[in-house]
Amino acid sequence: MGIQERKTREKGLRRNQILEAAKEVFSSKGYNTATIEEIADVAELSPGTLYIYFKNKEELHTFLSIDILKHIAEEVELVAQDNVSSDVKLDNLRDVFIKVYEKDPMILISLFHLQAGETLRNLSTEVLDQLKQTSARALSAITSIIVEGIEAGVFIDDHPVALADVIWSTFSGVVLWVDSKRLLNDQKDFVKSTLKIAFSIAKKGLKKD
Questions:
Q1: Which pLDDT belongs to residue 1?
Q2: Whole-angstrom Cα distance, residue 129 to residue 150?
Q3: pLDDT band at 123 (very low <50, low <70, confident <90, very high)
């Protein structure tokens, strides 16, 4: 391994080390309370080192959102490529969304807040482009499932991108709404059960009579 290749590898490992530490701190303390100093302490690095890799706490938090969005895109693409019927793919898509939520609920909630909030206006062009490209990748895979269902005569013949938007907004809306109810009422986490009901309704709406 050459010197440059080793430096690139070490840089990637250090970046992942920082992201893992940030995920731990954000999940335990929340975004507003967490500090760069606390993240650096968990990562066993100096705050100055963190600033070499990330401009500020906001950018670090955004990259965590991009990472989970990339994971969603990869999983949705696998669902789209599977050799099963379109309506089964829709069920599998629901299961992917539930598994992602169960794996990293706080980061997923942060992603949906990011996509819906004013924070987007404060991101650098480079980071915003990454977020846009990854979002487009996930939406494209969902759209391909819808197109396949339309062409097979299973789903209603309507605008596939708009229908894909409905699927994605169902996912994000349920996660944000049920989470807000849980925080306000200190109840159990009902996201999984509510997503199952929401997707059952969405599936009935998508299918032809």
A1: 62
A2: 31
A3: confident
**How many angstroms from the chain centroid is the CA of residue 92?**
17
122 plus 148 within the same structural domain: yes
- Residues 161 and 159: their CA atoms lie apart, in Å, by 6
- 3-state SS assignment for residue 155: strand
User: Based on the domain organization, do 16 and 63 belong to the same domain?
Assistant: no
Instruction: Give residue 129's Cα distance to chain centre.
Output: 15
The whole domain housing 154 covers 56-206
User: Which of 16, 38, 54 is the endpoint of a domain?
Assistant: 54
**CA distance to 122, 130, 135, 180, 185, per residue, from 173 (Å):** 23, 23, 16, 11, 18
Residue 139 scores a pLDDT above 70: yes
- Same domain as 95, residue 4: no
Beta-carbon neighbour count of residue 162 at 10 Å?
A: 10
Residues 6+ apart with CB under 8 A from 47: 36, 37, 40
End-to-end CA gap in the chain: 61
State pTM to two decimals. Answer: 0.82
Half-sphere exposure of 199 (CA within 13 A, CB side): 23
Q: What is the per-residue pLDDT across 75-107, written as a single tens digit (0 to 9) for each? A: 999 999 999 999 899 999 999 999 999 888 888
CATH code, domain carrying 47: 1.10.10.60
d(CA 190, CA 105): 12
